[in-house]
Every structure is written in C-alpha cells, then in structure tokens.
Specification:
Helices cover 44% and strands 15% of the residues. By secondary structure, it is an alpha+beta fold. The N and C termini lie far apart (56 Å).
C-alpha cells in the first residue's frame, strides 16, 4: 500500500508536522529523507530494509559511496543528499560551539565530535581551541594516523594554540576499533599535553575518545 493511502495520522510527514521530529522512529525519519520508494515498496519499506541491512542510522551514515549506492532503490543522488545533510548538521553544531560556554553544553560537544570523528577508518587527533569564555575559536585536525606520543607533537600543538590566541583547548580522537576506552598511551599523551600547554597558560579542559556510538570524556572520568 502506498503511503498516500495510509491514514493521515500514520503518515511520517504529517506526524512530523503535527508532533515534531522527535515523535518519529528512525525508520520514519529515514523514509522522509528518501521521499520515494521503489517498485513494490514504499519509502517506509525501503527505509526498514536499509536499517535492517546496516543495523543503525549511524552505520548507514558511515557507509562509503560504493556500498551505499549498491543497494536497490538507492543511487548517487541520495548519497550526495545524505552527505550534504550530515555536513549541514556538523556546521550547525560547530556554530553553536562558538556561541556559548562549551563546558555548559557537554552533549553538544559530544554530538559534534560523533559527526566529525565516528566511523573514520584511521585515527584523527583534533583540537577545539577556546577563548577565555570557553567559546570555540576554531576546530583543527592536528594529526592523522596511529596515535602515539611520537606522532602527536606537543610543540606543534603549542604553535596552533598561540596562533589562535587560545586560552583553553579540548582534545579529541577516534578509535577505529569502535571501543571508546583510553589506552595507557592516551593517558600519558594527555598528561604530557596538559603539562606542556600549562607553560603558556593554556588549559586542557578535556580529551574525548569517540568510538562506535559512544564517547568517553577524560574529565568526567577523573582522568584529567
């Protein structure tokens, strides 16, 4: 049965307009994004199939173009639309980080970092540089590759902190394995950066590790 033949109260678009986006399931939200289904399947049916295939919206969002476009009913146009939506979400969250005290919005920081780092195939180490009121000045990808003390250079971090005239910084990196647990190297590196940046009066407020669907905060776990 086509969605247009459903009772109005059960149609995803009408439900969103009446009750807001939070009232919809992941399947319904994805169906609205897809807009149309395919022969023999409504947009809701197709959305259900996609979530069953990938397991979650997170995994669907992380799919590369070849994997995404290989599925029935999905093509390059949908892939590019999805990437645009994700980038707009990142930009919107990034703007919010610049408008208020980050330390009062831990969930905002987590959401931004998930969109930025989750499901990357290699480790990325980034810094969010803050002013004296803990507002984001800039976010920079500082290092790529395997995270070790020898591949993350404190003096380079100092250069970027001075460049932005930062008063504080929040670090974050991802674990491609999906497990958001700090290694001894992570802990040692964070302590080294904290001590080094203290020499130029820049505070290290937190270090986040982004895994698969989870984000660990050093500050919240008493590790910094």
């Amino acid at each position: 049965m086509a969605i247009s033949d459903w009772p109005e109260s059960e149609r995803p678009r009408e439900k969103l307009v009446k009750n807001g986006a939070t009232s919809l399931s992941d399947i319904e939200l994805l169906a609205i994004f897809l807009r149309t289904g395919m022969a023999g399947k409504s947009a809701v049916d197709l959305a259900r199939d996609l979530l069953k295939q990938f397991g979650s919206l997170t995994n669907l969002f992380a799919a590369d173009q070849q994997t995404f476009c290989s599925l029935p009913g999905i093509g390059t146009a949908k892939y590019t639309q999805l990437q645009a939506v994700l980038e707009m979400a990142r930009c919107a969250l990034g703007d919010e980080l610049k408008n208020g005290d980050i330390m009062n919005s831990p969930e905002l920081v987590r959401n931004y970092l998930r969109l930025t780092l989750q499901n990357k195939e290699h480790e990325i180490f980034l810094g969010i540089f803050l002013d004296t009121k803990n507002r984001a000045i800039a976010t920079e990808e500082l290092f790529n590759g395997t995270l070790t003390q020898t591949s993350v250079y404190p003096r380079e971090v100092i250069k970027r902190a001075l460049h932005h005239n930062a008063a504080a910084i929040i670090f974050a990196h991802n674990h491609p394995s999906g497990v958001a647990e700090p290694s001894q190297t992570d802990k040692a590196l964070t302590e080294t950066l904290k001590q080094t940046l203290a020499l130029i009066d820049v505070k290290v407020l937190d270090h986040f590790i982004v895994g698969n669907g989870t984000t660990l905060s050093f500050a919240e776990n008493g590790l910094i």
